[in-house]
Design brief:
The complex is a heterodimer of chains A (365) and B (211). Chain A has 365 residues and is α/β, with parallel strands linked by helices. Chain A has two domains: 176 residues, ATPase, nucleotide binding domain (Nucleotidyltransferase, domain 5, 2-Layer Sandwich), CATH 3.30.420; 177 residues, ATPase, nucleotide binding domain (Nucleotidyltransferase, domain 5), CATH 3.30.420. Chain A contains twelve helices and eleven strands. The model of chain A has no long low-confidence stretch (mean pLDDT 93). Chain B has two domains: 110 residues, 2-Layer Sandwich (Nucleotidyltransferase, domain 5), CATH 3.30.420; 55 residues, no CATH class. Chain B starts with 5 loop residues before the first strand and ends with a strand. Classes of the chains: A alpha/beta (365), B alpha/beta (211). Strand 9 of chain A pairs parallel with strand 11 of chain B.
Chain lengths: 365, 211
């Protein structure tokens, strides 16, 4: 018999404020009792990206509101919780601080344990929340802020095989949409335009695909897109709709090629561990892209590896994944005290060489 | 017989963690720990020590008073988020108190409350008066000043200083005591300065209709 647990989760590390209640019953069945997400797309749309100070201001006045809604929707109360789990990093520090401080206030007043959760662990453990995937499994986390291959060995043990050395693909999709006059967020709008485009018309680079290892780069692809666009604009005085569709198709195929090629390498390393039930899980907003998903599924079929991707609402930022990651930590006897820090940088795999922002402050992710 | 309400006031809008516990009109405990950073880690352990040493529990509180600034943006958010979390879990009101209202509590009127805004500027609010403003020290006009930037403001505009009778957290708790039975709005930061953000630079291209 499993210990039943009810965990409140809080997430505020980028531009979504979220709260959720996740329960596990005595049979071990995990259920999302509620999951509330308040987005900020409208607040940032004029700026062409998430503005940290604007995000921080919104989170500070929304975390408690999200929590109230999550409790109401789950028809439960703080007195029914076993612990409060909160994203303690990595992310935009202003938002993370608001989440952590609100969580401390809730935990203190309700007399509940506090659990600091790594945002990346939340994404990486989602396949267990949705599909009860067994350890060890291979994970590609690919979103607007992150892109990395991880092997999840337990709730607290992750091996990072590689990741982007500059931008994340989701960010490149947003940038592509912006330079082509398509609406934000760029993922869906670029995918839609690409559906009528010719991917072969523009020769776009596949950065680092020819290099060994699982590291990736998307910054050069963004620059190549800008050059290709400027070339057409210089020639015609503007961009035709077909030009735009062809650019989008070329871009999407380049991203898919890089992710597929690097997934093959990551999979070879993972299969070297001879996992009992080989599984590849993909999470993050970019996992919603049909073309990218299709090439990743193909790579899995080639290697006899099961493919899984959580539903979109659990791929993008949410608090159910934080509550679930908190549940696994709490189950392992882990919790934090009231000195819990909000951390802008917090690599999931502390043993791996830093990939991003490896300055004197240490690795970002 | 109803007992006097116990109110906890705290503030991290400057380089410190400040807290005070009052019972009715009486001060029970006052604390001010200077620190340039680390308020997010320090605040709750400090509040819990304070409650413990005065023999109180979180559940004994009738209301929270919280400093909403203006001041350090992150510092204000630390306290406001904490207060909103406590308000939710304890089921008691949290009252947001501006740095001006805290500084001018019990100070003879007319007076201008001033808070440092850095780069030779101050946030200022007149009592009696209306909305606070952000002004350069050179543009500040006041005869009597109070608050954390009173000294530098007085040097610039020749005003005389009227000392605040209470430490900041105690003043916040006392203002909260006056207001809490009626307060319904949750505390929100008072920034005055808008967020630093530039509109997107890269303009979209002209889209031509295909022939």
């Amino acid at each position: 018999m499993t210990r039943p647990l009810t965990i409140l989760g809080i997430e505020s590390s980028c531009d979504d404020t979220a709260a959720a209640v996740v329960t596990r019953d005595s049979s071990g069945q995990v259920r999302i009792a509620s999951s509330v997400v308040i987005g900020q797309t409208g607040l940032h749309s004029a700026y062409g990206g998430v503005v940290p100070e604007i995000a921080a201001r919104a989170h500070a006045e929304r975390v408690d509101i999200c929590v109230k809604q999550a409790l109401t929707q789950a028809n439960t109360a703080l007195s029914d919780m076993d612990a409060i789990a909160v994203t303690a990093g990595p992310g935009l520090i202003g938002g993370v601080v608001s989440g952590v401080m609100c969580a401390k206030g809730i935990a203190a007043g309700a007399g509940l344990p506090l659990i600091g959760v790594n945002h990346l662990a939340g994404h990486a453990l989602t396949p267990r929340l949705t599909d009860n995937v067994a350890y060890p499994y291979l994970m590609l986390l690919v979103s607007g802020g992150h892109c990395q291959f991880l092997i999840a060995r337990s709730a607290t043990n992750f091996i990072r095989l590689g990741g982007t050395i500059d931008d994340a693909p989701g960010e490149a999709f947003d940038k592509t949409a912006r330079i082509l006059g398509l609406p934000q967020p760029g993922g869906p709008s670029v995918e839609q335009a690409a559906s009528t485009g010719d991917a072969k018309r523009f020769a776009l680079p596949r950065p680092l695909l020819d290099k060994p290892g699982c590291d990736m780069s998307f910054s050069g692809l963004k620059t190549a897109m800008l050059r290709a666009r400027d070339g057409i604009v210089a020639e015609k005085g503007g961009l035709g709709r077909q030009d735009r569709a062809d650019l989008c198709a070329g871009f999407q195929t380049a991203v898919a090629d890089v992710l597929a090629g690097k997934s093959r390498r990551a999979m070879a390393l993972y299969l070297g561990m001879t996992p009992a039930i080989p599984t590849f899980a993909v999470a993050g907003g970019v996992a919603a892209n049909t073309a990218i998903r299709a090439v990743l599924e193909t790579v899995c079929r080639e290697n006899g590896v099961a493919f899984t991707a959580p539903p979109l609402a659990l791929c993008t930022d949410n608090a159910a994944m934080i509550a679930y990651a908190g549940l696994e930590r709490f189950d392992a006897g882990l919790s934090d005290d009231m000195t819990l820090s909000a951390r802008p940088r917090w690599p999931l795999d502390s043993s791996a060489t830093p990939m991003l922002g490896s300055g004197k402050k240490g690795a970002k992710a | 017989m109803t007992s006097d309400p116990i109110i906890l006031g705290f503030d991290t809008s400057g380089p410190y963690c400040a807290a005070a516990l009052i019972k009715g009109p009486l001060i029970i405990s006052n604390r001010h720990d200077d620190m340039a950073r680390g308020q997010a880690e320090h605040l709750f352990p400090m509040l819990e020590e304070m409650l413990l040493s005065s023999g109180s529990r979180w559940q004994d509180l009738s209301a929270i008073g919280v400093g909403i600034g203006p001041g350090n943006f992150t510092g204000i958010r630390i306290s406001v988020a904490a207060a909103r979390g406590l308000s939710l879990s304890l089921g008691i009101p949290a009252v947001g108190v501006t740095a001006f209202d805290a500084a001018s509590l019990g100070v003879e009127r007319p007076v201008t409350a001033v808070v440092d805004a850095r780069r030779d500027r101050v946030y200022a609010r007149d009592y009696p008066g209306e909305a606070p403003v952000l002004v350069t020290l050179d543009d500040l006009r006041a005869a009597h000043v109070t608050g954390p930037a009173a000294e530098i403001a007085a040097q610039h505009c020749g005003a005389d200083i009227r000392q605040s009778p209470y430490p900041v957290a105690e003043a916040i708790a006392r203002v909260a005591r006056q207001r809490f039975p009626e307060t319904s709005d949750p505390p929100a930061p008072l920034y005055i300065r808008p967020a630093d953000a530039a509109p997107a630079r890269d303009l979209p291209p002209v889209i031509l209709d295909d022939a």
